[in-house]
Amino acid sequence: MDIKKSEVLYVSKDGSDSFSGRLSRKSKNDGPFLTIQRAIDEIKNIKQKNKGSLKKPVVIMIRGGTYFLEKPIEIDHQHSGTSEFPVIIMPYKNERVIISGGEKLENWEITKINQNEVFVFEINGKRFINLWVNQERVNKARYPKIGYLKIYGLCEEDGKKQWNEGVYKAIFNKQDIENLNEYKNGEIILMTKWVESRLPILSIDKDKGIIEFRKRTVFKPQKNDLYYIENLLQFLDKNQWYIDFENEKLYYFPEKNKKDYEFIIPKFEKVIKIVGKPEEDKFVENIQFYNITFSHTEWYFPESSLRGKDAGGFAQASVEVPGSIYCEGMRNCKFENCEISHIGNYGIELGKGCQKNKIVNCKIYDLGGGGIKIGERIIRDEKKMQTFGNEISGCTINDGGKIFHSAVGIWIGQSYDNLILNNKIYDFYYTGISIGWTWGYGKTLAGRNIVKFNYVHHIGKKTNGDGPILSDMGGIYTLGIQPGTLISNNIFHDIYGYWYGGWGIYFDEGSSYIIAEKNLVYNTTHGGFHQHYGKENIVRNNIFAFGTHQQIQITRPEPHKRFTFEKNIVIGKTEKWIEGGLDFNFVFDKNLYWKIDGGEIKFFDRNSKQYSLKEWREKGMDINSLICDPKFYNIENFDFRLKNDSPAFKIGFEEFELPER
């Protein structure tokens, strides 16, 4: 971009919104704007002077510093650029710019709790669940300090409920709760199946071991589900905090080796709202963000529901948690080399009518929720209202689910023609990439999504060893009919489920017409590949290695061709090779299988009927497959390159390119 041929606007922390914004530094009675919103709104004035259009690109250059917002930045269709003359928002030179949805906490007092000096702040009625100290997330006081406890079970009347019905109380092991004292600000975070429930404590009956909640659980818990408790003053430890909502005070236990402190709490759930009117063909277009950091937001259940009868969570993927950068009716816009960090919700949300946008080379981390959401849960019939054709490439998305544990790295709902390319996704408690939002064979918009050259790892269990705490997850997870969706040349490894369901590639309910090829999947708790139910999927030329319980799982029998599984290499240590609903409405052939110790492999029906390899072949399966060592270069170090004399080439297996690890 030739700055000399652009209309350049400047923003600085020592500017003024009464200035012209055309100078990079203050000079007498003129200089840069003070606020980013004022610079963005100047685009409307420029267009007015030019009879409603831009005659050159507009570049908004922001001087370095942290910009604490008075309200979220709002961008609408009137701020749009054009393909010839885009609007560019970027830092001045190489200065670091942080746009913050938070505010500083200052003027603390010091008191003593258990002989320890603790900072105390007046919060004046504010409610928030995130705190950052010196740009690092600080956890609330927690019991237990590390790890998790297990619930004992349910009261008799709750035990009769269906699995998807929530409860308002549970029975806890008495020894685990006997020392709980003041609990009125406490919150239990209880994991059940694939979701967490955040449950403010209503009462504790220590004699019976019963804790009642102000909100209901999402699903019916079961014995030995995991939980922990946050925000109990008695467990306050170094570099932790506690909030007393009734007395409107925040307590922070400082680390002794620190002298200077900056405390930031979230003020807004969104930093930027980019909202067009796609229903009126008024899109926000051709706006580009470069090298900007967005931070310090959160979302939590509305105040009115905290003591109500709503659930303390979401049925899947924390999908109702919004993005800190929220977009709808946005077209041909771009975020490049940006950072979204230290937030309490999802990073970016491309909602209704977001089309052909790009998120490129961004770093998205320290997330209360997930990374990126694309599309909606509902199906829109008008194309202008649909979300499609977006690209997420070269991004690193990690350290998510800090508040909402079931959030995912990239979520694609009712959306199509998106490209997910060359991203690194890791350290989430639930799923890496999720595509589709139709359970079964009903109407859907999720087709022709391309997922290639991504590196997804440590899902369920994080790299620091925390987890697994949830179940039923995948490195990649799909739902519904998805013709044209391709999952290719990706690495998925270290996928861990708690009760069940740590799978690499997971075709869940109704997943159909999807191709998964040339992927490397290894170190999973429940198998490299799982199809719950679906139609005519193709799984070919992949490497699946080292499932703990079994190597492959195929669950629901159906009266149609379920999938084709061919030219794959499957290696492991388990006798149970394939487990599930073995109705033989599928095709297995031209695969290479190898049990590391050379022992026998078996195929298990979900009713515990076993098939030997001979019996499996008598059913028409794997007639042309091989049982032999594939001859990898160094399997102990997960080097899955094949030696030149590998027998895998005899079945037509082709070596393939993978993303960098």
Question: How much is the radius of gyration in Å?
Answer: 27 Å
Q: Give the overall average pLDDT.
A: 96
- Measured between the Cα atoms of the first and last residue, the distance is 33 Å
The portion of residues forming beta strands comes to 35-45%
Q: In one word, what is the shape?
A: globular
Number of strands: 64
Biggest sheet, in brief?
Answer: 14 strands, parallel
The class by helix and strand makeup works out as mainly beta
Number of domains: 3
Strand order of the largest sheet: 1-2-5-25-29-32-36-40-43-46-49-52-55-58
Low-confidence stretches: none
Total count of helical runs of at least 4 residues: 4
> Helix coverage percent of residues?
under 10%
Q: What is the fold's blueprint, element by element?
A:
Blueprint: E1 7-11, H1 36-49, E2 58-62, E3 65-68, E4 73-75, E5 87-91, E6 97-100, E7 102-105, E8 109-113, E9 116-122, E10 132-133, E11 136-137, E12 139-140, E13 142-143, E14 149-153, H2 156-159, E15 169-172, H3 174-177, E16 187-192, E17 195-205, E18 210-213, E19 226-230, E20 240-244, E21 249-253, E22 263-266, E23 272-275, E24 284-285, E25 287-290, E26 293-295, E27 323-328, E28 330-331, E29 334-336, E30 339-343, E31 346-350, E32 358-360, E33 363-367, E34 372-374, E35 387-388, E36 391-393, E37 396-398, E38 410-412, E39 415-416, E40 419-421, E41 424-428, E42 433-435, E43 450-452, E44 455-459, E45 473-478, E46 486-488, E47 491-495, E48 502-507, E49 515-517, E50 520-524, E51 527-531, E52 537-540, E53 543-547, E54 552-554, E55 563-566, E56 569-572, E57 576-580, E58 587-589, E59 592-595, E60 602-605, E61 610-611, H4 613-618, E62 626-627, E63 632-634, E64 639-642
Parallel strand pairs: 1-2, 2-5, 3-6, 4-23, 5-25, 6-26, 12-20, 23-27, 24-28, 25-29, 26-30, 27-31, 29-32, 30-33, 31-34, 32-36, 33-37, 34-38, 35-39, 36-40, 37-41, 38-42, 40-43, 41-44, 42-45, 43-46, 44-47, 45-48, 46-49, 47-50, 48-51, 49-52, 50-53, 51-54, 52-55, 53-56, 54-57, 55-58, 56-59, 57-60, ...
Antiparallel strand pairs: 7-22, 8-9, 9-21, 10-11, 10-22, 13-19, 14-15, 14-19, 15-18, 16-17, 16-19, 17-18, 20-21, 60-61, 63-64
